[in-house]
Amino acid sequence: MALSDALNDDVVLWSTDARAGLPLLVLLHGYGADERDLFGLVPHLPPGFAYAAVRAPLAPPFPTPGHSWYPIEGLESRDPRHVTDAAARLVEWLDARTDAPATGLLGFSQGGAVALQALRLQPERFSFAVNLSGYAMPGALPGDDILAERRPPVFWGRGTHDDVIPGQLITHTVEWLPAHSTLSGRVYPGMGHSVSQDELVDVRRFLDLQFDAITAAGA
């Protein structure tokens, strides 16, 4: 059954129209941004992927601009059910819109949480994930045991001066990711809730390795 607040095809930004046979990397922006935010990173990322930047379906409360994947305010702040719903919307969109030979996820902040939640919903579907200044949600999902067995590659980058993500979520993610993924990443001194040039270099290196692995598996 289709979820409400489905993703809008009309605002998805694609890096290329010639996508047949290319691995796909889906870009998931953060709270208050839109599809243009992470699409600006594409020139700095490996050219072998097709990139799709999608727009979150919800509008944050006024006066916050942009869009959000799930509410982070009020009594339902960061409720894991809403994060799971957001990930399910993403999976539904992918089911209907792409037949890529391999799919990875790259998200910032909220988008990073959605990327990890989608990985948990369909642990055998996604090849890898990149979590920039994001976190893993507490609670158990049916795919967690499979994920712990598969241990897909995950890159997690965050800054020492990030005062946006609650400390308890960082603590949980520090414990959860090594148990459910092949984790790599870095904590960047002095970086706040953002993406630095050093982090982009590390992400590019990680994605190059994933592209090589996907290519080798399909050879």
* C-alpha Rg (nearest Å): 16 Å
Overall pLDDT metric? 93
**What's the arrangement of strands in the largest beta sheet?**
1-3-2-4-5-6-7
Find the CATH superfamily: Alpha/Beta hydrolase fold, catalytic domain
The fraction of residues assigned to DSSP E strands is 15-25%
CATH topology annotation: Rossmann fold
Main sheet record: 7 strands, mixed
Alpha plus pi helix count? 6
Tell me the series of helices and strands, N- to C-terminal: EEHEHEHEHEHEH
Query: What characteristic shape results from the CA principal axes?
Result: globular
Number of domains: 1
Distance between the amino and carboxyl termini? 36 Å
Secondary structure: number of strands: 7
Specify the CATH architecture: 3-Layer(aba) Sandwich
Low-confidence stretches: none
Main CATH class: Alpha Beta
What structural category do the secondary elements indicate? alpha/beta
Helix content: 25-40%
Protein name: Esterase
Domain Phospholipase/carboxylesterase/thioesterase: 23-209
Keywords: Hydrolase
Family: Belongs to the AB hydrolase superfamily. AB hydrolase 2 family.
